[in-house]
Amino acid sequence: MKIVLLGRDGQLGRDLGAVLGSAGVCAYGRADADLADGFRLRERLLREQPRVIINAAAYTAVDRAESDAAVAQRVNAGAPAVLAQAARELGALLVHYSTDYVFDGAGHAPYTEDSPTAPLGVYGRTKLAGEQAIQASGCNHLILRTAWLYSSQGHNFYRTMLRLASERDELRVVDDQIGSPTYARNVAEATAQMLVAMADGDGFRSGLSGVYHVTSQGSVSWCGFARRIIEMAGLGGRVRVTPITTAEYPTPARRPAYSVLSGDKLARGFGIRLPHWEAALDQCLARDGALA
User: Fold this and answer.
1) Over pLDDT 70: what percentage of the chain?
2) Is 150 marked active-site?
3) pLDDT value at position 50?
4) CATH domain 3-153+184-215+260-274 topology
5) What's the CA dihedral at 158, 159, 160, 162 to 10 degrees?
6) Left if phi > 0, otherwise alpha if psi is -120 to 50, otherwise beta: which for 58?
7) Backbone φ, ψ for residue 33 (5° rounding)
């Protein structure tokens, strides 16, 4: 089964590459396949003739997107539309990653895949538009919404906390935004399992196509997550983590106050449940060599 992986150099793309291996996988970074250039992107896919297209690339600079909406739209909405059309022409499966930012965060119970969407900013709106373009195309697809993604590579909250903890004795972290920190390696492993389950001879089980939430179990605030990172890395005796409000840390883009996603549909359809976020953090710290 030939797979084209887009976003090779991102934190999720790296873990996907490690989990999927190199056999039959053509992995591309931005220099090889620019999502903002739809014509060349489609041309490359039709030339490669993959059976599976995995799109782990996106415009993820949430705050910058507020002043760079046109580029965010091309990458997060335009490119998925191109990928979906190519997948339909090829009879391929499209795996695309989306976000908790499609919700407004006004809820108080885990969002299901059918919960009403109401993004607060450009990033969320463009990611939702990408989802809708894929669904409208009629291609076989898996749209995997994840949240608070981190790994031992790339730019993410986990790495930022460890870096700041090496420089400061106090970290001030927002405590009134609640979500589920999700380890990228767990998402990559779940993706691989889903690909196996989707395969049906030379085709795919179209009945399993759709949107799925792929996040760790449990929930915590950013401050609570930071505190556990510091404690589990053995730095709790030296670094103090102080809670602050969102209002004390203003950003150009609004964030959902509550963005916990239900994983029940993933469990029903594929028999997959990701680990609790604390167990996943333990995995990441151990792999990173940061566990004391």
Assistant:
1) 99
2) no
3) 94
4) Rossmann fold (3.40.50)
5) 90
6) beta
7) -145, 95
Confidence of residue 146 (pLDDT cuts 50, 70, 90): very high
Q: Please say if the pLDDT value at position 139 is more than 70.
A: yes
Query: What is d(CA 88, CA 2) in angstroms, rounded to the nearest whole number?
Result: 16
**Tens digit of pLDDT for each residue in 192-249?**
999 999 988 878 888 899 999 999 999 999 999 999 999 999 988 899 999 999 999 9
Alpha carbon distance 25, 194 (integer Å): 16
pLDDT at 252: 96
CA atoms within 13 A on the CB side of 284: 31
Boundaries of every domain in the chain: 3-153+184-215+260-274
Straight-line distance from the first to the last Cα atom of the chain, in angstroms, rounded to the nearest whole number: 41
Q: Of 28, 111, 123, 258, which one is the catalytic site residue? A: 123
Measured distance CA(273)–CA(278) in Å, rounded: 14
CA-CA distance, 255 to 130, in Å (whole number)? 19
* Cα–Cα distance measured from residue 187 to residue 247, given in angstroms and rounded to the nearest whole number: 31
Whole-model pTM?
A: 0.94
